[in-house]
Amino acid sequence: MKTWEDALEEFIAPWRRRPYFVGALVTGSRAFGTADKYSDIDVHIAMRNSVRWRERGNRVVDGHLIEYFANPLRMYAIYYRQGSEGGSRSSARMFVRG
């Protein structure tokens, strides 16, 4: 079985070839260093603002569950603002620690 990092690289490879790909950020227990053998891999795929769609899904790569969120960059500002206005720090904490 591949390491979780290798599985993530395999998952991200096709995204990297897309012209609207900006970057990827691992969050959750893998980023925080608290993962155990049952933990999934949480990854955000950032895309150019010209993209008019979003995608959320799960994919298993070599036995590793990857939960992904693909969004145009503008959505991250919206998530942060909504959380801030609602008194939640979870989005800010997730991205700062990712």
Summarize the SSE layout with pairings.
Layout: H1 4-16, E1 21-27, H2 28-32, E2 41-47, E3 55-61, E4 64-72, H3 73-85, H4 90-97
Parallel strand pairs: 2-4
Antiparallel strand pairs: 1-2, 3-4
Give a brief description.
This protein is an alpha+beta fold and 98 residues long.
Describe the structure.
The model has no long low-confidence stretch (mean pLDDT 89). 40% of the residues lie in helices and 31% in strands. The protein has a 4-stranded mixed β-sheet with strand order 1-2-4-3. The radius of gyration is 14 Å and the shape is flat. The protein is built from 4 helices and 4 strands, in the order H-E-H-E-E-E-H-H. Strand 3 (55-61) and strand 4 form a beta hairpin. The chain is of the alpha+beta class.
Major beta sheet, strand line-up: 1-2-4-3
Could you describe the largest sheet, including whether it forms a barrel? 4 strands, mixed
Overall shape: it is flat
Write down how many β-strands occur, each being a DSSP E stretch of 2 or more residues. 4
Helix content: 25-40%
Derived structural class: alpha+beta
Mean pLDDT: 89
Note poorly predicted spans.
Answer: none
- So how many helices? 4
Question: Which oligomeric state applies?
Answer: single chain
| Percentage beta strand | 25-35%
Helix and strand sequence: HEHEEEHH
Kindly report how far apart the N and C termini lie: 24 Å
Radius of gyration: 14 Å
List keywords for this structure.
single chain, 98 residues, alpha+beta, 4 strands, 40% helix
